[in-house]
Amino acid sequence: MFEEAQYFAPVAKREDGSVTVELASSHPGFADEVYRERRNAIAALALNYQLGDPVPHAEYTEEEHQVWALVSRELAVKHQRYAIREFLDAGERLGLPKDHIPQLQEVSDRLYPLTGFRYIPAAGLVPLREFYGVLADGYFHSTQYIRHHSVPFYTPEPDIIHEVIGHANTLASDRFAELYRLAGGAARRVESEGALQFVSKVFWFTLEFGVMREASELKAYGAGILSSYGEIEEFRGMDIRPLDLKAMGTTEYDITKYQDVLFEAMSFDQLEDVVGSFWATCDDDSIARIVAEG
Ligand SMILES: [Fe+2]
């Protein structure tokens, strides 16, 4: 078992209908039976979900709401310093609650009138083609659990803080929402697994971990950086490379560590010209040509 390389905890559904989230022994909630029960219950909500239903209500403890309040407050301070303007403006438009964890339905109710995006629950890892594909229809798969309250600034897996503070704030921007839609269209259009991986890696190095020059300062727009209390302080010291499709689509990354290679867009226009145009038109042949370029 490669527990240290685990990203989403595996979810098992037994014949009797019970659902178990298999947390690694290194997970901060591993020894907390009550937390694990809650994780199982939340995973079951997602497994039983049908598209079109309202998102089922997840139960959180008061301690968990306090984790959200603390992390939201601390990240908001860092966003003022490190996030691009487009993200800050979109966050103002969305107006997420700061004192309690929003239900995913509440996130959808705020987001849908702005950019047409809706949140749907995910128990854990969603297959790439499905995760990206439905972005084209304005659906975003989101985990619903929150990290263990003993370590509010750390999570080994993407939790609701990442999904909502990182992604919903970007999805409230018309320009970002269009990029997500285009990524979804690309994932549906490509046929080979290799081409899908390429599309997914470009997403990783942009909408998850992208950085952008803004008024001569390096800022972040990737949801992975903007939802990480530690990583947001480190990205300026990483190996920053120019925005390049071939490099992004073929560079390997380790999901369990801070991303040490990042790609910098010179402007939002450049991000749209290079990455948006790529997703809008790419297919297996065009990706093969990019990979073969010298
Ligand atoms: Fe993400």
From TrEMBL:
<dbReference type="InterPro" id="IPR036329">
    <property type="entry name" value="Aro-AA_hydroxylase_C_sf"/>
</dbReference>
<protein>
    <submittedName>
        <fullName>Phenylalanine 4-monooxygenase</fullName>
        <ecNumber>1.14.16.1</ecNumber>
    </submittedName>
</protein>
<dbReference type="Pfam" id="PF00351">
    <property type="entry name" value="Biopterin_H"/>
</dbReference>
<dbReference type="InterPro" id="IPR019774">
    <property type="entry name" value="Aromatic-AA_hydroxylase_C"/>
</dbReference>
<dbReference type="InterPro" id="IPR001273">
    <property type="entry name" value="ArAA_hydroxylase"/>
</dbReference>
<keyword id="KW-0479">Metal-binding</keyword>
<dbReference type="GO" id="GO:0004505">
    <property type="term" value="F:phenylalanine 4-monooxygenase activity"/>
</dbReference>
<keyword id="KW-0560">Oxidoreductase</keyword>
<comment type="similarity">
    <text>Belongs to the biopterin-dependent aromatic amino acid hydroxylase family.</text>
</comment>
<feature type="domain" description="Biopterin-dependent aromatic amino acid hydroxylase family profile">
    <location>
        <begin position="1"/>
        <end position="294"/>
    </location>
</feature>
<dbReference type="InterPro" id="IPR036951">
    <property type="entry name" value="ArAA_hydroxylase_sf"/>
</dbReference>
<keyword id="KW-0503">Monooxygenase</keyword>
<keyword id="KW-0408">Iron</keyword>
